[in-house]
Amino acid sequence: MIASLRGVLESVEPCVVRVGGVGFELQIPEKDRSGLHEVTGDVSFHTYLYVREDRLTLFGFKRAEDRSLFVQLIEVSGIGPKIAIRILGEHPTERIVEAVTNEDHAFLCKLPGLGRKTAERLTVELKDKLGHFRFVEGAATTSGKTGLREEAILALTTLGMQRSSAEKALEDVNWKQQNESDLASIVKDALRHASSV
């Protein structure tokens, strides 16, 4: 199993990462593709190798949480990898997990490839299997807060921090004490925590 890749980004569409002398083509969520055009240097992906009798397909994700949810989704009857990658490309993992946990069928039915029956099956099969997802307190329960978290990660990585380090630093931020619209304050707090490690 290829669990992760780190290498030089050769192409965005299709996404091709060169590791040594080998170029790996990845199927990735659209939300991850949108940030690749400005990438310089190495890129890293959490990956999942999907095996069929006639095909091997490598899927890549910038966040471990996205890969984890992808694996859960494709285990649900009626949801294949193509549908799962499209679902993850349109909404943050946090929002999808929240909808499944709360049995928000109205939201789930709007996801690509999901009808009412599949959405209901999704909640039945996954509702009790998503307890391992742990998101930043106060930052992931709404799409607005999730967007702010992603903006903070972008700001931190622009300053030279690795994404994994940025996510770890944001876990230590006291979101309840922060003005949720004050990106600069959140970034400063995250940098303070990162420098103290």
Describe the overall structure.
With 197 residues, the chain is of the alpha+beta class. The chain has 3 domains: 4-61, Beta Barrel (OB fold (Dihydrolipoamide Acetyltransferase, E2P)); 64-129, Orthogonal Bundle (DNA polymerase, domain 1), CATH 1.10.150; 143-195, no CATH class. Helix content is 44%, strand content 18%. The protein has 9 helices and 5 strands. It has helices at residues 30-33, 64-73, 81-90, 93-101, 105-108, 116-126, 143-158, 163-171, 183-195, and strands at 4-11, 15-19, 22-26, 42-52, 55-61. A 5-stranded antiparallel β-sheet has the order 3-2-1-4-5, covered by helices on one side. A hairpin with a 2-residue loop joins strand 4 and strand 5 (55-61). The model is unreliable at 136-145 (pLDDT under 50).
Topology diagram in text:
Elements: E1 4-11, E2 15-19, E3 22-26, H1 30-33, E4 42-52, E5 55-61, H2 64-73, H3 81-90, H4 93-101, H5 105-108, H6 116-126, H7 143-158, H8 163-171, H9 183-195
Antiparallel strand pairs: 1-2, 1-4, 2-3, 4-5
Helix pairs in contact: 2-3, 7-8, 7-9, 8-9
Q: Give the end-to-end Cα distance, rounded to a whole number of Å.
A: 32 Å
Strand order of the largest sheet: 3-2-1-4-5
Number of distinct beta strands:
5
Helical content stands at 40-55%
Poorly predicted ranges: 136-145
CA-based gyration radius: 17 Å
CATH superfamily of the largest domain: 5' to 3' exonuclease, C-terminal subdomain
| Mean pLDDT value | 80
Quickly give the structural class: alpha+beta
Residues in β-strands, percent: 15-25%
What are the main properties of this structure?
197 residues, alpha+beta, OB fold (Dihydrolipoamide Acetyltransferase, E2P), DNA polymerase, domain 1
